[in-house]
Amino acid sequence: MRMTRRGFLALAAAVAGTAGAAGAAADPAAAAAGGAAQAAARTWLVPRYGTFSALTNTSLGGDPAVARNALGQGTTWFSVIYHGEGTDTKSPIPPGYTGTAVLKFAAYQNGTDGLLDAISDGLPSWVQAVQYDAESWDFTPPIEKGAWLYNPYPGVSYAELFCRKAHELGFPVVLTPSLDLCNNKPNPAYPGAAPQYPVAAGERNYEAYVRYGLASAARWLLPGDMYEFQSQALELDPGLYASVTAKVEARVREVSRGVTLLAGIGRTEANWDGATAAQLTATAQSVAPIVAGYWPNLDENATRVPIMIQFLKNLGY
User: Fold this and answer.
1) Nearest alpha carbon to residue 142 among 198, 192, 188
2) pTM of the predicted model, to two decimals?
3) Has residue 262 got a pLDDT over 90?
4) In 10 A of CB 193, how many CB atoms?
């Protein structure tokens, strides 16, 4: 059954009321109670196949009880990426759990598995929200990589098109653009194969992300929608992670209202940085006053799974 936007607004209000509750309390009992309340209200964006399956895989060091404590509060948005299966796509909500069922897309339209393609194929009845995860990978068409924001060459912003179509259908939207949209790789969809969000000499892609204002795409989100900053590449430096996330948060708040903001944390095999549970905890806590929760990135690996489980324990689960 599709969740109404009124339900999402109620959830967003509850999260907003607890997101800033990270301040220290004089009474240890009150502090513990406050920590438990914050843990219960924290919002998560969790891939069903990947993060969730790894956290519950005991052979890899997963702990189903910890996973349920963290992700079974009804505030988890479970996602599954669309691969052209039409109405046969299975719901990402695990058995026995409640939450928001998110159908994730890497493209607005690519002829196979973009949002418009799925609409043409017929959306599964379980879909409660849709996610646009544009990244510098083969799943996102080159034309879309270069026009996250409005680009005069195609004359559109694909983030805007995605949001407008989803809202037209009554779906809340999750926007999760990757830092790697800012790069110096040739883009064959544009004149001269020019990159559309080039990184300047001596600049890092997260700095370019802020300079181009990619988070200003939140202007097309409605109250109850979600914006996630893929900040996990900065997780080994809590100070840098916090300062850049704060800049993104300020831009999101400047152009939108009632939007749930999440931060990315944890990395998978291709980009693993060796972060310990203590490092992940310090990093997550550095932005606790300004984000409602996190997108934990995890693959099925016997080294990384116990680290993420301990991280969840450190957060009170």
Assistant:
1) 188
2) 0.90
3) yes
4) 11
